[in-house]
Amino acid sequence: MKLMYPLLPTSLVSAAVLMVPLLATPIAEGDETCNSPYIANLIKGQEDYVYVWALGVEGLGDGSDKMVTVDVDPKSKSYGQVLSQVSVGGRGEAHHMGFTDDRRQIWAGGLAGSDIYVFDIATDPARPKLVKTIKDLAAKTGYIGPHTYYALPGRMVVQALSNDKDKGGVTGMAVYNNNGDFIASYPMPVGSGGDGYGYDLAVNPRKNVMLTSSFTGYANYMRALGDLIKDEAAMKRFGSTMVAWDLKAMKPTNVMSVPGAPLEIRWSLKPGENWAVTAAALTSKLWLVQQDPKGQWQAKEVATIGDPAKIPLPVDISITRDGKGLWVNTFMDGMTRYFDLSNPQAPKQTYEKHTGRQVNMISQSWDGKRVYITSSLLANWDKAGADNEQFLRGFSWDGRELKQVFEVDFTKEKLGRAHHMKLGSKVLRTAYR
User: Fold this and answer.
1) How far apart are CA 61 and CA 79, in angstroms?
2) CA 339 from chain center: how many Å?
3) pLDDT tens sequence across 177-236
4) Which terminus of the chain, N or C, has fewer Cβ atoms within 10 Å?
5) What pTM value is reported for the model?
6) Is 207 helix (H, G, I), strand (E, B) or coil?
7) CATH superfamily of the domain spanning 13-431
8) Is the Cβ–Cβ distance between 195 and 214 less than 8 Å?
9) What percent helix, strand, coil does the chain show, rounded to 5?
10) Taking the domains of the chain in order of start, what are their residue ranges?
């Protein structure tokens, strides 16, 4: 279904957000669960494609970062096979991507620079086209390493990880309109508990709140992981905060202490529940964010992921449609875990499976019956030798067991390192016309 929003001004992002009613999360028949609530959820039932944003590897294929489209329709003759690939003509540590609110485009970028790539997925969803490269992020803001792409009505908020001065973790957000025109920038708060670091962001329109999390800067994430871990000074340069923002005003309201680099943020999708969870990578903890009796947003440690002493390194999480379950991937041990969130104050792990020698991103379908997993974390952090598996794996989930149903070997196919994913559908082609 297509959500109808008011026409938006082209001046201030705050004015745009002020015009948006505090909507409940849209109900979709298909789709993944972790998109912005402002995105038009048009997938009807079974998704047809998984778009994979892949890091180029020197000497493998053309060596460039690329958007890869995989057929995931079980009824298709090309099920589990690559349908298309679109290279960007270079390597820049391809990382995350996101839909525009109208779902006509995917924006993607890399952590090694500041370029943002815009792909048209509306004209032919099976064969995305690179239609624009936005090159003014660093010039306009001083930020580099664009990471999160989060849709607002007619807008895209881009959370960066670093800056072009000292390449540390102090950074901020930039806002563009859907045409790729720069609108405004917002620094992450420094002082009064703020460390200035950024990573992910997620919005709850009902509460007029945006949450942001924190990671580290270019100087750290572009180093080899083994060397980084041995550097005590560098290991202190990771974020340890989350920030609650007034969404309409785009101003921080309070900083929360969340040690250990809190990463992806997932709001409960169950109507009436206004809490979010995140996983802290370095401490292997799950954190709950919700309002206290006075209405202030607070963060609380609520669960442990694996054995923190072994540094399993939680990397991605995916919340279920009903808000009662959470998938967690841990990179170092290659495990996929499921937590029961029926009581978000005390999540309980109820299932685990070894899904790869290294695993990173995890996406699930809206109906919860399908789960997709990719392998690459960062080019300099991925494992070596036989442990350096690079794949997209599809699984079925019946509530009791994950069963692998297909695999695309990205090394064998000369595609690079498989990182972020988004789901697509043939239905979108006719829905846009």
Assistant:
1) 22
2) 19
3) 999 999 999 999 998 899 999 999 999 999 999 999 999 999 999 999 999 999 999 999
4) C
5) 0.93
6) helix
7) YVTN repeat-like/Quinoprotein amine dehydrogenase (2.130.10.10)
8) yes
9) 10, 40, 50
10) 13-431
